[in-house]
Fold these 3 entries.
Entry 1:
Amino acid sequence: MTKVPKFKLGYTGGNLDRADHLRRDAQAIQVARMHPSARWLVLDDLKPVLTEDGNDLYWARRSELESEGQTIFLGLEADGSPRFAIDCPIGDLPGRATDARAAGMRLPDDRAAIIAQARSVLDWHRRHGFCAACGAPTRPEKAGYSRLCTSCAAEHFPRVDPVVIMLAVKDDLALVGRGPNFPAGFFSALAGFVEPGESLEEAVARELHEEAGIRVHNVRYLASQPWPFPASLMMAAYADADGFELTLDETEIAAARWISRDECAAVLRGDGEWQAPPPIAIAHALLANWASGTS
């Protein structure tokens, strides 16, 4: 197995106790809501509200919330203080609603991880107001971690979509590509959703063959990262390519190139001819780990 890098992986490092046992106890959640130390993270149109200087999450008191909205229980701080998130307008809070990507790049790991949790679950509630089984309205249960159909009683849970993101490597070269909608000059690792009935290793091999026309072997895991847009789990890997010849699926890949470790290192320093993903993205970790020679 490839050694997991020591550098930061965006949206990881959360240290709230998610306290699953409280989610099933409606009375306990109500007590937590009324606790003097309880605070709410407001997400205005799924944008987390940060302090005015932008250096931390703004934790609102219950009395500061001007409107009702979907609320979820995030967990407990180390001192037992309850933390919630709410989907509602910012109102007169002394903070600013900030794009979740920008906030994730600015904040410390543990704060960014809270954004990932809050944004993904609140976005799921927005999308699942009706039962997939019978079409009737659903209502939130378990402190926001399930929805119950009001007609057929089917229970629905927040989903996580598994995505593989990988570098094909051969003879000290690695394959990067750019999608049709990427900015000009931007290249990254190839990626794709895991399909039903396949392993992560099979998904890596399939996606590389479908998108770039190459066969690979020796797939090896690096690390994983939540990506809350809306609720993906990115699983990073390397795979040894059998050859260099590419046949691109141009609906998915507009351009691709084999790069050297030196070229990759230069790009990550900002000295290259193309742009790499920012440090918050696990694709950056894939490239940096490979460029350092530790993959």
Entry 2:
Amino acid sequence: MYSYPLVVKAIWFDESLNELCWINTTKLPHEEEVLCSSDPARVAKAIRDMEIRGAPAIGVAAALVVGAYALKIAGRSLEEFTALINNAIHILLKTRPTAYNLFYALTKMQRSLREALSRTSDTYTLAKKLVETALEIYREDVEANLKIGEYGAELVPEEATILTHCNAGALATSAYGTALAVIRIAWYKGKKIRVIATETRPLLQGARLTVYELVKEGIPLTLITDNSVGLLMRKGKIDLVVVGADRITRDGYVVNKIGTYMIALAAHKHKIPFYVAAPTSTIDIEHTIDQVIIEERDPAEVKYVMGKLITLEQVNVYNYAFDITDPELVTSIITELGIIRPPYNETIPVNIARKLTT
């Protein structure tokens, strides 16, 4: 395993408390509030309210709180224990409909419970097994972050200026990030890079979170408004784009933070490489793009900025959290298994099959 400094941490399992802990990203960059809980309902609220956000982090956090909750209720009868665990998983599954890692992680927890039940009826043993599985999911994400960063760094030219959108960093994963892992590891390897971060309306994840992370790392960056991307590309100020993903379909459609599609279109027009960095746990091989639910969030997120009303209260709002980028706009997908290139309808299923056999 490669070793790099971990400057920012979003989620972790506190073994002294037997609780999931997280940094409340809604308070960043001005306050570093740490919260801990073993209550699935409380963590479900944290996910819905985006205290915990980013597809990989959502999935790992959900798994870890199921494990923590299992330890808390291990003294119950087998019937009550399994009913409570299944209910907890159900609550967590209903939090955010688009991020595929959530379904990946909780499906893995359900499978772990079923397999353990075939061997034991002891609830303490079952709880320990669920914690082990959750920690495996956590470690899998950390390793994926590192490998994505290693593979992706090879695509970054010396002295490149990299555009990234939203926050696909440590605050969206278990460790180094996806898109920001590529940036981090290129930087750690001595490449003299610069970053351009979009502010990312309406919740300003770029301005609040990506800036917070990269300033802590000492990586040179410039913050821009979302609608500056096209002009900067026209001026030749961007060499490549690296973004994360909340879901990737088997034929290469990328569901990511709203605004990604427009960036991809502009990159395609100006012949700028457009890379998507994501673990294979983000790839949904079961659903076509027309079956993916695109989350719509509270209109207040658009009407208010930092608690201040910026428009008229009665105005109608579209507040889609994600958009869809077509596969022909994606240069490559960077995963922990390596670089996946077009045609995605052929290469993605091959890579997922490879993961399942390793």
Entry 3:
Amino acid sequence: MAVKMKTVFFCQNCGYESSKWMGQCPSCREWNTLVEETVRPESKVAGTRSSGVRAATTEPQSLSSITMEEEERADTHIEELNRVLGGGLVRGSLTLVGGDPGIGKSTLLLQVARNMAADGRKMLYISGEESLRQIKIRANRIGSFTDNLKFLCETNLGTIEEVIRHTAPEIVVIDSIQTMYNEEVSSAPGSVSQVRESTSVLLRIAKSMNISIFIVGHVTKEGTVAGPRVLEHMVDTVLYFEGDRHASYRILRGVKNRFGSTNEIGVFEMREEGLAEVKNPSEFMLDGRPVDASGSVVTCSVEGTRPILIEIQALVCRSNFGFPRRQANGADFNRVNLLMAVLEKRIGLQMSDCDAYVNLAGGMRLAEPALDLGICLAIISSFKNRPIDPQVVAFGEVGLSGEVRSVSMTENRVMEAKKLGFTTCILPKVYESRLKNIEGMRIVGVRSVQDAMQIFS
């Protein structure tokens, strides 16, 4: 009996499914993103087999009867990547790596494949975008490769599954998921249906054969992985590459991780021979600081367990138009507007007729509240045209009443500042007595933004 086909409309931006076409997607509010695709209804048996999850036991179990073994992790020989993954690559995991075109996704995974193949592990690198000659040109810049790493150019998922089952590699790289297609799905490669079904097949392979699989995913103009949102729910780990592809640095951030923390970041520098680890990102971010320039202050943010010192720059000048312009690069725009309102209300800075620009040097994107005090001091410094001592680092959350609130991991932040040669630290008053005995570091506790203003007097 012939299987009846049905037509469904999918949103190319978020994966929303509708039985009819609409001009605007009701989920993500984007216009003209719904496309028509023909799908085949799955039977109950087929749906169970393609779910990608091991069959559950027939009898429910209590928590005490479940045995737990620590996940076996493989060293990628890239410390920054190991940090983001939570200590290494877990066997049988499915990892999604997203980022802008040309930012270094394929280069990083090729380096991972090279390092792990040198350890004697069987690696398989499958590319649907580049030919074998193109891969070799890029590989020659990175270094020498062992025969444990095999390459395959293929987009048919059925063929890929046969090759994986025949060669039985330990780790597989798929570059990229948008180029793969399943013959059982009638839509074109890169469509919502193809991406979802292809990921489901790869998930089943990873769990059933205990193979670690990396998937490269393209991103939309909003910076999210192209395809249905369910793609990120299916995989075990989601990593995003951040940074300007025209700049030298790259930041690898874990957005989802079933085997570790989602707050860790890894910092890399793009060089001719590939991506190099940045062991001390604070020193890297502070390189090239201006001397005796107003509107510049160093603050400390914590990403996971790593404190990072970063320079905040502010520029406040009189506006030539009736409506002043405000802009924030790397910081939350709404948060900057809120802090400027606090400065106008609590300490009387009249900036309603001024243009204001706030920038996190190095192109970093941070949203931690501990940056508030640094942003306030940078704005005040630029408005009064008075430079702040370059040996000063400041951090703390600022409330609507102008009070400076406590933040986490304060001692780690202070020790990171001391390690890089800073001599004065402005922080919430509650920590002044606890940290006053740190040798070589002058601790200045402030209760409010008004107290922090004393450094300009």
